[in-house]
Specification:
It is a single chain. This protein has 156 residues and is α+β, with helices and mostly antiparallel strands. It has one domain: Alpha-Beta Plaits (2-Layer Sandwich). The chain is 33% helix and 33% strand. It is built from three helices and six strands, in the order βββααββαβ. The strands form two sheets. A four-stranded antiparallel β-sheet has the order 4-5-3-6, with helices on one face. A two-stranded antiparallel sheet has the order 1-2. The radius of gyration is 18 Å and the shape is elongated.
Length: 156
C-alpha cells in the first residue's frame, strides 16, 4: 500500500484544509544548538561581540521568525501565535536555543517553533562569524546541530 501524503492531491501540492478542525490550545517546544569556540562563547558572555548583544538579537530574530513561518514554508498555515518564548543555555562548547510557541488554533505550531530555533541559531552565527572564521575565511568548527521537537501538546 502506497503512503498517502496530506499535502499531495492528484499529484499536486496543496495546503491541507483545516476548516473542520476545532480551535484548541497548541504548544510546541523545540531546541537546537550551535557549536562555537570557547573564545567566542566568552565574548558573548562578556558582551564584547562587535555587532552587539548576541542573545538579545537572536531572541528577537526567533520571535520574528515564528511569526513569519508561513511566508517561508509554503504549506504552513497562518496561525494566531499567542506566545513565543526563547531561552538560551550556554556551555563552554555550545549554546542551546529552546523555543516554545503557543497558539489557539486549528493546526500545530511545531513548524513555527522549529523555524524560530533555526533562525535564532543562524543569528548567533551571523553575529559572531568574524570571530569563528579561520585564516581562509571558513568555519571549520562552527556547527548547528540537534534541531528537534522536544514536546508537542494539544489541549482541548
Amino acid at each position: 500500500m502506497a503512503t498517502q501524503f496530506s499535502h499531495i492531491h492528484d499529484g499536486r501540492a496543496r495546503m491541507v484544509d483545516i476548516s473542520n478542525k476545532g480551535i484548541v490550545e497548541r504548544i510546541a517546544t523545540t531546541s537546537g544548538r550551535i557549536v562555537l569556540s570557547s573564545d567566542t562563547i566568552a565574548r558573548i558572555i562578556d558582551g564584547t561581540v562587535e555587532k552587539g548583544n548576541v542573545l538579545a538579537t537572536a531572541r528577537i530574530a526567533a520571535i520574528m521568525a515564528a511569526k513569519k513561518t508561513p511566508d517561508i514554508i509554503p504549506m504552513c498555515h497562518q496561525i494566531p501565535i499567542t506566545s513565543c518564548d526563547v531561552e538560551f543555555d550556554i556551555s563552554d562548547q555550545y549554546i542551546t536555543s529552546t523555543v516554545t510557541v503557543k497558539s489557539m488554533g486549528s493546526t500545530g505550531v511545531e513548524m513555527d517553533a522549529l523555524h524560530a530555533v533555526c533562525v535564532s541559531l543562524l543569528t548567533i552565527w551571523d553575529m559572531v562569524k568574524s570571530a569563528e572564521k579561520d585564516v581562509h575565511g571558513n568555519y571549520p568548527d562552527t556547527v548547528i546541530e540537534n534541531i528537534k521537537v522536544i514536546k508537542k501538546i494539544k489541549r482541548g
